[in-house]
Amino acid sequence: STVVPPSLPPYFIKGSIIQLADGELKRVEDLKTEDFIQSAEISSELKIDSSTVERIEGSHTSPNFAVVQFSVGEHRAQVSVEVLVEYPFFVFGQGWSSCCPDRTTQLLELPCTKLSVGDVCISLTLKNLR
Amino acid sequence: VPVFPWHSLVPFLAPTQSD
Questions:
Q1: What value does the CA radius of gyration of chain A take, rounded to a whole number of Å?
Q2: Interface membership of A52 toward B (CB under 8 Å)
Q3: How far apart are CA A36 and CA A48, in angstroms?
């Protein structure tokens, strides 16, 4: 059986059932870019932002972690996140990608490519409520 | 079988707006 570290969420395991904003159910490995875009269009609170990977470094805390620096949205705000190296991000037009795709596939059985500088990931921000 | 909402899969990155 697959052993998932406690800080790696269960919904990334292959076969997990994901509900889109219109109620449709899909497996996590079958999600497409359009699924996220259409779900965000339906959402009253959330919108999709583009987050471009600017830098990927090993963590000072633990070799199991990486620090990924993103440039977020049209304002290019700099945001760094510390994640397990197998943590998957969804890259526009490409799909699931992580710092260590071999580990992602090993632990989660989730098909995954290598996350690289310049990749544009899907992220969420709050819609402007006016 | 648990069902997870789509937005739980996406990191929430709120940019700080400086304008």
A1: 15
A2: no
A3: 8
Please, is A47 exposed, middle or buried when counting C-beta atoms within 10 Å of its C-beta (0-12, 13-18, 19+)?
A: middle
Report the DSSP beta bridge partners of residue A69: A55, A80
**Residue A112 touches partner B, C-beta closer than 8 Å:** no
pLDDT in tens, A74-127: 889 999 998 999 999 999 999 999 999 999 999 999 999 999 999 999 999 888
Q: Report how far residue A70's alpha carbon sits from residue A66's, in angstroms, rounded to the nearest whole number.
A: 13
Q: Cβ of B15 and A10 within 8 Å?
A: no
Q: Which residues pair with B5 in a beta bridge?
A: A19
DSSP state of A109: -
Angle A49-A52-A57 (CA atoms, 0-180°, nearest 5)?
130
pLDDT > 70 in chain A, percent: 93
Mean pLDDT of B1-19: 81
User: What ipTM describes this predicted complex?
Assistant: 0.85
Which run of H or E residues covers position A69?
A: strand A65-72
Residue B15 banded pLDDT, cuts 50, 70, 90: low
